[in-house]
Each structure stands twice: as C-alpha cells, then as structure tokens.
Amino acid sequence: MTVINAPTASGHGQTVCVTGAGGFIASWLVKLLLEKGYTVKGTVRNPDDPKNAHLKALEGAKERLILCKADLLDYDSLRAAIDGCQGVFHTASPVTDDPEEMVEPAVRGTKYVINAAADAGTVRRVVFTSSIGAVTMDPKRGPDVVVDESCWSDLEFCKNTKNWYCYGKAVAEQAVWEMAKETGVDVVVVNPVLVMGPLLQGAVNASIKHVMKYLDGSAKTYTNAVQAYVDVRDVALAHLLVYEAPGAAGRYLCAEAVLHREDLVRILADLFPGYPVPTRCSDEVNPRKQPYRFSNQRLKDLGLQFIPVTQSLYETVKSLQEKGHLPIIS
Ligand SMILES: NC(=O)c1ccc[n+]([C@@H]2O[C@H](COP(=O)([O-])OP(=O)(O)OC[C@H]3O[C@@H](n4cnc5c(N)ncnc54)[C@H](OP(=O)(O)O)[C@@H]3O)[C@@H](O)[C@H]2O)c1
Q1: 23: CA distance to ligand 1 center in Å?
Q2: Which of 25, 102, 319 has most ligand 1 atoms within 8 Å of its beta carbon, as the pocket-test mutant?
Q3: Is 62 considered catalytic here?
Q4: From ligand 1's centre to the CA of 329, what distance in Å?
Q5: CA of 51 to the centre of ligand 1 (A)
Q6: pLDDT band for position 7 (50/70/90)?
Q7: Which residue(s) pair with 189 in the sheet?
Q8: Taking every annotated instance into account, which residue ranges of this chain make up the domain NAD-dependent epimerase/dehydratase (predicted)?
Q9: Which of 243, 190, 231, 259 has its CA nearest to residue 318?
Q10: What is the pLDDT of residues 187-236, one digit of tens each?
C-alpha cells in the first residue's frame, strides 16, 4: 500500500472547488490541494475579509487559488464557484447547536452543492465532509459494537437531546446520498470525529475550543464522557485520498483514538504542566463512561497513517501559543 507523505503533483491541470475555504479543516485541505498542483476555487462569504488572509499567503495561492464569494443559501453563488471544476469538496457548514442557524444552511446548502455539481456537468466527484455526529448518536447501540461506516445516528434521539449539530449533519448526509442517487453525481463522504491540530486560520474554531477550555482556566472540571479525536492534517489528507482513489465509495470514518475526558486532561497536564488543567470530574456518582471501539480501516486501506492523538494535542497547544491564544508557560 502506498503511503502519501510527501506531496506529489497529481492535481496539475485540474480545478477543484472547496466550500467554506477559510475554515479550520478547509484551510488545511486548500493548502494540500495547492501543494499537489490543483487550481482551487475556494468559497468564502467575503473574499476581502482579513480573516481569509491566511489563504492568500499559502504557497501557490497567488497563481492557483481563486476566492469566490458564496453563501450556502444562495444557489447561484455556489453554481458559479463550481463552474468549470472537476471536483468539489463540500466542507462549509455551520458548527452550532442553534437549530435555526444549523439545520437549514447545512441541509439546503448541501442539496444546492450537489445540484450545482450536476448542473456544471464537469464534476467527476463530490467529497462531502460529514461528521461522527451522523454516526454515533444512537442510544440503542450496544457497548460491544465496533463503530464503523455502517452506523447511523438516530434522528429522533438527536432531536430529543437537542443535539442540533448532529441532527443537521445527519440530515445533510442523508440528503447527500439521496441526491447522489437522483442526479447521478459521484459522492464520497468523510466522517471526521473531533478535529484538533495546528491552526492555519487566525480565530479559534469550535473543536479547538474543546481542547483550549482545559488550558485557559475556563473549565474547572471535566465531564464523565468519551470523545474520539483526529488530527486536522489527517482529515485534509483523507479528503484528498478519497477524491483521488478511483475506487473510493461510500463513507470513511476518520478517527485516531477515543479517550475519556480524564485521559485527555491527563495528557494535557503531562505535556504542559503549567496550565490550570482540571483534575476533578463533574460527575462523581455514575460509573466512568467507557470508550467505544471503532474502525478506521477504510482510510488505512487507502494509505492513511494517523498522527497519534498525543502528538496532535501537543501541536494543537503549540499552535495556540504561537497564535497568541494561550500564554506561553514554561
Ligand atoms: N472540527 C471538527 O471537529 C469537525 C468534526 C467533524 C466534522 N466537521 C465538519 O467539517 C466541516 C468544517 O468544519 P471546521 O471545524 O473546519 O469548522 P469552521 O472552521 O467553523 O469552518 C466552517 C466553514 O463553513 C463556513 N460556513 C458556515 N456557514 C456558512 C454559510 N451559510 N455559507 C457559507 N459558508 C458557511 C464558515 O464560513 P465563515 O467563516 O464565513 O463563518 C467556515 O468557513 C464542517 O462541515 C463540519 O461539520 C468538523
């Protein structure tokens, strides 16, 4: 199996669209695509917003990055961005538990992207960034089940527990599969778990806040909960691998490790002992939640070697320090 470490120029002569290009994951994807020689049409809501400056500074951006103004609720803007593209990476999505802000743009925007890809007539494949939120939210899953691409979140459970982000991502992914059938567009889906790692963009996004809150003093305790983690560079590479592999199809669970919060804070405290990392669990009554088993074999089979969670956490914190989001404590 070939392992892709050093970039090669497989993208020469190809133009691809990345929606939500300025986001945490998309920025790394744009960087990788430029390194591979692709011409990238990246959609942002405002190309002149200084928050997108990091994209313009990427190597190859001057020659091969075109920033297009587009909103998920504006079909024409998405259609214009996708025009002339051989591939589309649809990563843009609200990341919030506010039902009004989340569901409509995530679902309608996704339908627009698939329709625009079909209408363009040049698109070979659409890669959709779904989420673990569309996979694991199922109270009926037994403790011994290995979580993989066959698992789907229960929409009623998401609604009843007000997990509107998971609900929106699951409904959007369902729409993707329905639209793929209807339009004949070739779609492949990546389902990342909680993503961390170094930031290219200036602002701290939602998943990085999950780590930062244990270092900046805002979390006084940790919860009795488990979470799966993956590095952002592996998520970007997963998108590229499933785009380029001719035989790629279906869903790809993108996960490196599942940790209990106690393990997460212990790793952080060991790596960076100067920060006020919480030492107490907020739930001292219930038994400790057990990590679920999962399979990332499909991406491994495409050649992905996952960055270990401890290294990813270390580089997340170093990046937060470098960008001035955390004080440097020796
Ligand atoms: N980070 C994670 O842990 C994680 C895990 C699993 C899946 N995902 C998925 O990965 C994708 C990227 O997430 P991320 O972590 O990189 O988040 P992020 O940094 O918040 O990026 C989200 C991007 O979507 C754009 N966007 C949101 N609403 C939009 C709208 N109505 N029209 C146009 N663009 C819109 C944002 O643009 P603005 O900057 O203009 O707001 C931003 O560029 C999302 O689909 C998310 O669901 C993320």
Answers
A1: 6
A2: 25
A3: no
A4: 31
A5: 14
A6: low
A7: 128, 251
A8: 16-248
A9: 231
A10: 999 999 999 999 999 999 999 999 999 999 999 999 999 999 999 999 99
CA proximity to 59, closest of 33, 39, 40, 34: 34
**Is 21 in contact with 89 (CB distance < 8 Å)?**
no
Catalytic residue among 69, 169, 213, 300: 169
The reported pTM is 0.97
CA distance linking residue 149 with residue 144, whole number of Å: 16
- Residue to mutate, 18, 24, 211, ligand 1, most ligand atoms under 8 Å from C-beta: 24
Show the ligand 1 pocket: residues with CB < 6 angstroms: 20, 22-26, 45, 71-73, 91-95, 105, 129, 131, 169, 192, 194-195, 205, 207
Q: Which two tokens stand for residue 264?
A: 């997460």
Q: Which atom of ligand 1 is nearest to the CA of 46?
A: 40
Find the farthest-apart pair of alpha carbons in the chain and give their distance in angstroms, rounded.
60
Domains in the chain and their CATH numbers?
15-322 (3.40.50.720)
Tell me, what DSSP letter sits at residue 281? B
SS3 call for 66: strand
- Separation of alpha carbons 147 and 113, rounded Å: 28
How far does the centroid of ligand 1 lie from the alpha carbon of residue 2, in Å?
30
For 31, the token pair is 């960087």
| Residue 4 tokens, joined | 């892709």
Question: Over the stretch 267-280, which tens digit does the pLDDT of each residue have?
Answer: 999 999 999 999 99
Q: What is the mean pLDDT of residues 1-16?
A: 71
How far apart are the CA of 19 and the centre of ligand 1, in A?
9
Distance separating alpha carbons of residues 289 and 223, to the nearest angstrom? 10
**Rounded to whole angstroms, how far apart are CA atoms 259 and 290?**
9
Nearest CA to ligand 1 atom 33: 71
CA distance 242 to 90: 13
- pLDDT of 121 above 80: yes
Which atom of ligand 1 is found nearest the CA of 73? 31
